[in-house]
Design a protein that fits this description.
The structure holds two protein chains of two kinds.
Chain A (H helix, E strand, L loop, with lengths): L1 H11 L6 H5 L3 H23 L33 H37 L1 H15 L3 H11 L4 H11 L1 H15 L3 H8 L4 H9 L4 H24 L11 H10 L6 H38 L1
Helix pairs in contact in A: 3-4, 3-13, 4-5, 4-7, 4-8, 4-11, 4-12, 4-13, 6-7, 9-10, 11-12, 11-13, 12-13
Chain B lengths: L1 H28 L13 H10 L6 H13 L14 H36 L4 H15 L2 H15 L16 H31 L2 H8 L4 H39 L5 H9 L3 H29 L1 H5 L1
């Protein structure tokens, strides 16, 4: 059944789909993809190029500007630690949080929304009313509370950040589920006696992956933003680990005497978030266009 | 309309209740106590203090008593600033936060809607690309990055504006408010501009706009009289989340610019385990967000006659 659905989809797909069509949308998409790739490669492999370690103090060069000869390409902070290594290692944490927290919000949001939508009726109403109630909650305060009260471990942070952002996902997924659950292939599966959990997992969720991917791609920069917000308040990762938000916060304190301490991490954070948002937007437009042309062909 | 308001109020009550209970339980599950942080008190003194503030009863009793007091408008005493009531502290800090937040919201709305309309006039044009580029930047770049950069450029390098929002006697100056307000408004400006542009484009595509064009109405009338009102609906419904975002953002902005607002109490109070102050601020902000959402619904009804008739 689902194979037949697939072949229809493939037949109706316009020539302008796939990776090439996505990248051909605009120059902005291409530039941002390249930038993001460059940042990712730099963040993962860059620290290996420098002779310095993340917590290594260089007493000869304390709070010095960027220089090629000393090997401190981004300068040092006021403890004499190399800013190049710290910026990139901080980037590892920021990107990791973005990805893991998104994964957690996906897990919660997709299962919640799919169950509510598939169950329907009273259960659906109660579950969605709960989402309404949670929606009106100033969630950041709870994340701040959690981090302040229970110390700063990385796992808790993933969960706390991921747990605030699943509401949108739950709503979207529920809507998708409602439109999918009366399609023929779901009816067929039900008639064959497939249990509800398997129908949701194997037939409903895979069929809305495109929408989920679009919203997940827009969620990643939000998660990175939340993490850096927490780190800025001093509630993020702990020394000697660092993250972009923490580096920005340290840099903001020294910006008059050592502006490089602010400018390097701030531009890494800003460029990454900008590119992620541009790509997420482009992905959404691409997906809308694809859905539109599919509908037109059907 | 009335039904909508009643429905909203019905959602608001459990929202606030969940808010209080969640915050209360979280605070109490955390290790540490309000009296253990500074110096080591003899156990007998700590017991007396606990008894004095009713912290030695069971958690359930405490929660019920707190809810009862709240219903009577009593936020309780501050455990850290021992001479002050939580209500006093809120009354002291809130005017600053309110001024900051309101100014930021007005700026974001005014500039955002204008930018959105301007961008929607020629989609794909130079101005559209420029404005939407700025808007994505505004959404992407967090305001705690923007704020120090603004200080660096306008206060440190150019020297045009003061770096701190508060003057020497901790009073607010108009010039000192410019940078914090801009920094706080920027992300909301960006969201509003994007929303306005998108919904304006959709509205301009509809048949009654075509009819207005066919009548030969001037472009300005079409945009502002016929286009803007329906196009504002998504913007209005965004104002609820925007309020919450501005409140959260002001926590950071107040810290960066050294403003004596309510936001800076929050983190400090949680670190001090000042139970009643943290709860008070959470409840107060929660109430604000709920009220803001209610006002948004009212505005929505006023703008959209279809809602009123329902």
């Amino acid at each position: 059944m689902s194979a037949a659905g697939n072949s229809v989809a493939v037949g109706a797909t316009p020539a302008g789909s796939g990776w090439r069509a996505f990248f051909n949308q605009s120059r902005g998409v291409r530039v941002c993809s390249c930038l993001l790739l460059a940042i990712a490669v730099l963040v993962v492999f860059g620290p290996l190029l420098s002779p310095y370690a993340i917590d290594q103090v260089d007493w000869q060069h304390i709070a010095e500007g960027p220089s090629w000869s000393s090997g401190h390409w981004f300068g040092t902070d006021n403890n004499g630690r190399d800013l190049y290594v710290r910026t990139l290692r901080g980037g590892q944490i920021s990107l990791l949080v973005g990805i893991c927290a998104t994964a957690i919000s996906l897990l919660i949001g997709v299962s919640y929304g799919a169950i509510a939508g598939y169950a329907g009726g009273r259960i659906d109403q109660v579950m969605m009313r709960m989402v309404d109630v949670l929606y009106a909650m100033p969630f950041m305060f709870f994340v701040i509370l959690l981090m302040v009260l229970f110390g700063r471990n990385l796992l808790l942070m993933f969960i706390a950040i991921g747990a605030i952002n699943w509401l949108d996902m739950a709503r979207i997924v529920r809507g998708q589920t409602l439109s999918l659950k009366h399609r023929e292939f779901v009816d067929a599966a039900r008639a064959l006696g497939v249990p509800a959990a398997d129908i949701i997992r194997r037939h409903i969720v895979p069929n809305m992956m495109n929408v989920v991917v679009v919203y997940a791609s827009l969620a990643v920069p939000q998660m990175i933003l939340v993490e850096s917000f927490l780190s800025f308040l001093g509630l993020g990762v702990q020394e000697p680990m660092t993250s972009w938000g923490q580096l920005v916060s340290l840099g903001a304190r020294e910006m008059e005497s050592a502006p490089w301490m602010l400018l390097f991490p701030a531009s890494f954070l800003a460029v990454t978030l900008y590119c992620l948002n541009v790509l997420g937007d482009a992905l959404r437009r691409y997906n809308d266009a694809l859905a539109g042309s599919l509908r037109g062909a059907a | 309309m009335l039904r909508l308001i009643r429905h909203r109020l019905l959602v608001a009550v459990p929202t606030l209740l969940v808010l209080v209970v969640l915050a209360f339980v979280l605070m109490r599950l955390a290790p540490g106590s309000p009296f253990s942080s500074e110096r080591n008190l003899p156990p007998s003194v700590e017991e007396n203090l606990n008894a004095r503030y009713g912290l030695d009863d069971s958690l359930g009793e405490q929660l019920l008593r707190y809810l009862g007091n709240l219903a009577r408008g009593d936020f309780g005493p501050s455990l850290y600033y021992s001479d002050h009531d939580v209500a006093d502290l809120i009354r002291e800090g809130f005017p600053t936060s309110l001024r900051l937040g309101l100014a930021a919201m007005i700026l974001a709305l005014g500039a955002g809607v204008t930018a959105g309309i301007a961008a929607a006039r020629r989609p794909g044009g130079m101005l559209d690309h420029l404005l939407m580029g700025v808007a994505i930047a505004g959404i992407s770049v967090p305001n705690f990055v923007v704020a120090p950069l603004l200080i660096l450029v306008f206060a440190v390098w150019l020297g045009w504006l003061p770096a701190s929002g508060a003057g020497p006697d901790a009073s607010l100056t108009a010039a000192g408010m410019v940078l914090p307000v801009v920094a706080l408004a920027l992300p909301q400006f960006a969201y509003v501009a994007r929303l306005t542009r998108a919904s304006m484009l959709e509205v301009l595509d509809s048949s009654y706009i075509l009819a207005a064009r066919a009548k030969g109405l001037p472009e300005r009338t079409i945009l502002l009289r016929h286009g803007l009102r329906p196009a504002l609906l998504p913007v209005v419904s965004y104002l609820g989340p925007a309020t919450a975002a501005v409140i959260t953002g002001s926590v950071v902005i107040e810290e960066i610019f050294g403003l004596p607002g309510l936001g800076r109490y929050f983190v400090q109070a949680a670190l001090n385990r000042d139970y009643f102050l943290v709860l008070g601020v959470v409840v107060f902000y929660g109430l604000l967000v709920v009220i803001a959402n209610l006002l948004v619904d009212l505005c929505y009804g006023l703008l959209d006659p279809r809602v009123q008739r329902q």
